[in-house]
């Protein structure tokens, strides 16, 4: 994850550049402001809000290289773990506003970046951001009737969209069903409740493993449940975000019944159905390994002691793209194919036979 | 019989100064050095990151303070302190930060400020060009006469393998001119003018490199000799002279460290034939024997960019420089176990040795020596 961003400068800035060449004025400003940089978007953590015992919201104040974002977008966040910068992708959960942004982080596994953030993030910390990206956006003309379907940490980008709608002159109506196991697992629950108090937004939590409070529901996503809870679902433009299994179910329902567009954002991209695996040779370092069908090329490289450039580990940021030859399985679609020295994303491809990776 | 068998299966591949090593011994030596490298590289972490960022902060602070004081340069103590701080900043930036960052020692941090692909240093030599002439040519072909252009920088005779001509009689003088103008020597020697004249290098390539150098030179000159002096208004000359002096001091210091690293009398030179098809172990051997270390305190090591550990730097050019001090005793122990000379001494002793070499080689060699070119 190394995109160099250059600031725009007026004549004064250019004079500063000439005086500090070959460095940048910000390299000296960094002596007094830790977020000053001419090369990267640095942001100071201004508040840390614990959402659940496995999730935390960080409010960040970025430097002037931050271009702003649109509701529903995501961003790569970089922090230094053991000295080395690690990047992960997170949805922006706040409504776009100048000078500040919020990401909500749910910790999936121990020892990773998310756990580091959960346990160690403090106000005053400095993190690095990518430019925001993502097409999970509201159209220019916002439809009157919307349906939000979210599950797990898929609540975050939709939360940003809902907060944005709250701040605009939206006069339509939104149905929002959020699926989770228990109340303790629901991140941004307070905010969801608060949003639900608006007459235009009907937000309900659907629990899988716990008795619901009045106004909420119990069950898992399927066509029958949806028809019962939102009778006009098929005519609403749908924004869906959540784990792969959930999104597959939503897509299936939409294919059969939907009459308005569906936008979805995948969070856990990797399919569970694994292939056969194969033998991977890393041509640049003279290493080889046997990999299982569920192990991405990136994981296999790391297990072999290599440290390839990578970012989101979910196919979004393209940082890990690398030239590969051989038979691969795409872990997102489950499809296999043969490539001949094509640059593929190592994090979402596994070996399906003999593979040579230029690492 | 047994000896003949051994000769056949395990020939002697290294023989110098009464030390002979067989292929398997050289391989074993290489493996020990590799293992040392692995051990340190796996151990890199937060404290290394903290170290380099602290050096950068200190250096930037020195530069701001130095340039600030020079605006008061009409007061002699301010001029002296300002010039000293600016020289210190330039030395730290060139030696401990720039040189090492461009080697990729800090790439693992993933910090664009310390990334070899994007870094440029406060020196007239453009980073792109430096990475070619230094990282690739000098570090790969260390002390190989005819390949490593740092051997004499195209103007001096540093090895018996270079044939003598009368122009070399004046090399003690060239030496001091090079020392004073070291950054310019480094910037321009990569243009390889003599190769262009010989026709080994295309004029188009030459022009491309020349453009790159001039662009960098323009910016460096504009900053140190035009803009900062102008900002000082009536004190133009104080700032100008301070900047000039700081650049010269940095030149002298880097010249001193670099010459002591490869041109002491016992630093060995090699021919192109000798290094053809060499193994990793043999490459390590050449790095060890072609380099010499300087002894001193912690501050001295940092100011030298840890090139006081020239041997370790040449064995592990991409290892974070703050780790050289820690591996040096282990390298020395391995070298001594194989009967190899570990060239180390004080700055005074090593520089005296460099001077003797420069003066000795200014004169034709007495005995018939190998001649290259």
From TrEMBL, chain A:
* Coiled-coil stretches noted in the UniProt entry, renumbered to this chain: none
Where does the source fall among the domains of life?
Bacteria
Pfam families linked to this entry: FAD_binding_6, Fer2, NAD_binding_1
Note the InterPro entries from the entry: 2Fe-2S_ferredoxin-like_sf (IPR036010), 2Fe-2S_ferredoxin-type (IPR001041), Beta-grasp_dom_sf (IPR012675), Cbr1-like_FAD-bd_dom (IPR008333), FAD-bd_FR_type (IPR017927), FNR_nucleotide-bd (IPR039261), MRET (IPR050415), OxRdtase_FAD/NAD-bd (IPR001433)
Q: Which PANTHER family match?
A: NADH OXIDOREDUCTASE HCR, OXIDOREDUCTASE-RELATED
Q: List the protein's name.
A: Oxidoreductase fad-binding domain-containing protein
Q: Which residues form the FAD-binding FR-type domain?
A: 38-139
What region holds the 2Fe-2S ferredoxin-type domain?
278-359
